[in-house]
Request: fold
Amino acid sequence: MSVPEPSPAGVYAYPRYYAIGYQWNTKAECDFLEACMLQFARRKAAGVLDIGCGAGRHLLELAGRGYTASGFDLRPEMVQFVKDAAKQAGLAVTVFQDDLRTATLSGRFDLAFCLMDTFRFLLTNDEIIRHLREVAEHLNPGGLYVTDFWIPTKWDQIANEIYQWEQTEGDTTVRVFYVQHPDSVNPVSQTFEDELVFKVEEGETSKEIHGTRTRTRLIMPQEFQALVMACGAFDLAGAFSDFDLIKTLEPSCISWRMVSVLKKRAP
Ligand SMILES: C[S@@+](CC[C@H](N)C(=O)[O-])C[C@H]1O[C@@H](n2cnc3c(N)ncnc32)[C@H](O)[C@@H]1O
Reply:
């Protein structure tokens, strides 16, 4: 039985399914964050900030590894889910609702990160530069900001890609579809709409949850480098095609993602 379940919040109203669907690479991604601190900041982080934390997979993992973990997300359902999960696991995690496009942060951190394509919700150059300056303002000297967002592997695939993968926990299997809508392309603002769809099998039942189409920004590697330079607060310390310091971003190992490590400039 397949039950279509439209919702204005889309898949983000189902943080448990999100947590299952996205759990696969979390430990490796946290290992990468730790390795970046040692390689580029030459120290271990104490306080970390997760921007667009989703169901909190990185926050919970890092809190478990002893970090002082804080994060925020636009969706109240996600924030509540992380609070509940942290309480259940006996972990101290600070999580709150905010919008990365306008957030005025408080506190100081050694490491901030914005993973799994969340950075592309910043739609304009002004939003990106303002955001980068705001994050830098709240990093300790030499602190890092790690971003991870989609880039096209071929130019004729811009706004025309679909990815899918599946994860199982107990009797629940979540198949995640990431879908870009080519009909929505605005070539001037370099934006298009994309969407997440979850197909969930839970015991005997199955359902399909359609996300709302959300406008996101195409950010090309050279453009990102120029925006980082324009913000004046960071240097691009490295760019990778996966959560692996060996896989530097170059044509021989290009992937759908660009993982960038920004280092706060000395004043
Ligand atoms: C693809 S998920 C990634 C979540 C998490 N970073 C991860 O790696 O699992 C994108 C998240 O960004 C959040 N989000 C979307 N727009 C946002 C905004 N303007 N400010 C903060 N969070 C936002 C969504 O609610 C969602 O939880």
Q: What stands out?
A: The two ends are 60 Å apart (CA to CA). Residues 10-152+218-264 form a domain with the Rossmann fold fold (CATH 3.40.50.150). The helical segments are 15-21, 26-41, 57-64, 76-89, 125-137, 221-231.
